[in-house]
Design goal:
The structure holds two protein chains of two kinds. Chain A is mainly β. Chain A has a single domain, classed as Immunoglobulin-like (Sandwich), CATH 2.60.40. Chain A is 7% helix and 44% strand. Chain A has two helices and eleven strands. The mean pLDDT of chain A is 92. Chain B is α/β, with parallel strands linked by helices. The mean pLDDT of chain B is 93. Chain B has a single domain, classed as Alpha-Beta Barrel (TIM Barrel), CATH 3.20.20. The longest helix of chain B has 18 residues. Chain B is built from ten helices and eight strands. Helix content of chain B is 40%, strand content 17%. The chains are: A mainly beta, B alpha/beta. Chains A and B meet through α1 and β3 of A and α1 of B.
């Protein structure tokens, strides 16, 4: 069997487009915030391809249970994404990563250090030696109400 | 031989949301392309439902004097976490893609399917032959590095149908020096496969200062196609965008790439 071992490493470079901008959009009382994300895979993916989302804000690890993804106004808890095969996150399209966590009001500052990692299990069988591709990005992000 | 552009070439700007599929189609037309290749999972904002958008893109393409030369999709084997895609689900997926190809006014479908062993591809194509006939569509199996050029020959001979043809990607004949470990297959293998070919992906990862691809023998490959009276289509498929840093323009690369294809692909 031919293994394309370097494919995953090359695709990881597309993490460059993951953050659509450098803003943390918050509601008026700061109890939730939202990041605009672009599909980091090289083609559109069904949400079932999304394995995990890890988000760190100012060194605080946001529990995955506090995050949801909104694609074309359909809100889906991250843990439920694996069951969604019919809804695609399209290449170039912005989705919203919504964070609702009681610690946010005391956590967010004018400038925030963000570390984000999306783990994608490609729905197509490429014969890769790795099952998952991790897209990791770090950025300084301001708050926009 | 028709020469065109796979919109995959515009991946850097489409992926980053800087341009739209319509922008890419208009740009390809401005270069003098005979047609384009569309990829379901890259160029349709409502994929897998492509009906309405497909009608619009088909009309736009025709209005610019071009045709949709090939429609590409991925037959996903791992949509679910609890099990792999079954054979009947693969057939359903493929038949929907065949119908979508017809809806686009296109005759060539490239369904990416991980065929290990190749026998699984033979069985799938045979199950789809009635639909291919009914919709007047040709299944083009893409031959891509790192597979050997002869990887699908047995399957092509076993199915033995004009509805099942080959789409060679030039990466199979690329020389060393690429980020991946591509093989340096002899041009005789390309020559031997020409009777099976219906469409080609003219792959490039970079160009030199003279607009040549230093890794791929464009002159020789296109000369073989012309010598053999190839009447199918060849489209540029620039893939350097997966590696290169932004900012840079996929539009500029499309200009260079299509100029290279025309240099050796048009009658001389």
């Amino acid at each position: 069997m031919v293994k394309k071992q370097s494919t995953a490493a090359v695709l990881q470079l597309l993490a460059r487009d993951l953050l659509a901008d450098r803003h943390l959009y918050t509601n008026a009382n700061g109890t939730s915030c939202m990041l605009l994300l672009r599909d980091p895979f090289y083609i559109s993916i069904p949400l079932s391809a999304l394995s995990h989302v890890r988000l760190q804000i100012n060194e605080y690890n946001v529990p995955e249970s506090c995050m949801a993804l909104s694609v074309r106004e359909q809100f889906i808890q991250i843990s439920a994404c694996r069951q969604i095969r019919e809804l695609y996150w399209h290449m170039g399209e912005c989705a919203q990563l919504i964070v609702s966590d009681v610690v946010l009001p005391g956590l967010l500052q004018q400038k925030n250090h963000i570390e984000l990692c999306l783990t994608v299990r490609p729905p197509y069988n490429y014969g890769l030696s790795e099952e998952n591709i991790e897209y990791t990005v770090a950025a300084e992000m301001g708050v926009t109400v | 031989m028709k020469l065109g552009m796979s919109l995959y070439t515009y991946g850097a700007d489409l992926h980053a949301g800087r341009i739209s599929t319509e922008d890419a189609i208009r740009h390809a037309a401005s270069l003098g392309c005979d047609g384009i290749e569309l990829i379901g999972e890259q160029h349709f904002s409502a994929y897998p439902d492509i009906l309405e958008e497909g009608s619009r893109l088909r009309a736009l393409t025709a209005s610019l004097g071009m045709e949709i030369l090939c429609y590409s999709v991925y037959l996903n084997g791992m949509l679910r976490w609890d099990r792999e895609t079954t054979f009947s689900e693969y057939v359903d997926m493929a038949v929907r893609a065949i119908a979508a190809t017809s809806h686009l006014g296109c005759r060539i479908l490239r369904p990416a399917f991980y065929a290990e062993p190749v026998q699984s591809l033979i069985e799938l194509v045979q199950a789809c032959l009635p639909a291919l006939e009914s919709y007047d569509v040709i299944w083009g199996v893409e031959l891509h590095a790192p597979f050997h050029p002869m990887h699908y020959k047995a399957a092509l001979d076993a199915v033995a149908s004009p509805r099942f043809r080959l789409i060679p990607d030039f990466s199979c004949w690329a020389r060393n020096g690429l980020p991946d470990r591509f093989m340096d297959a002899g041009l005789d293998t390309f020559q031997a496969l020409t009777p099976y070919m219906v469409h080609c992906h003219a792959k490039s990862h970079r160009f030199d200062e003279n607009g040549e691809d230093p890794n791929t023998p464009y002159r020789e490959l296109l000369a073989i196609l012309r010598k053999n009276g190839f009447s199918g289509s060849v489209v540029c498929e620039y893939e350097g965008w997966l590696q290169d840093d932004v900012p840079y323009s996929s539009l500029k690369n499309a200009v260079r790439h299509f100029a290279l294809l025309e240099r050796y692909g048009r009658k001389q």
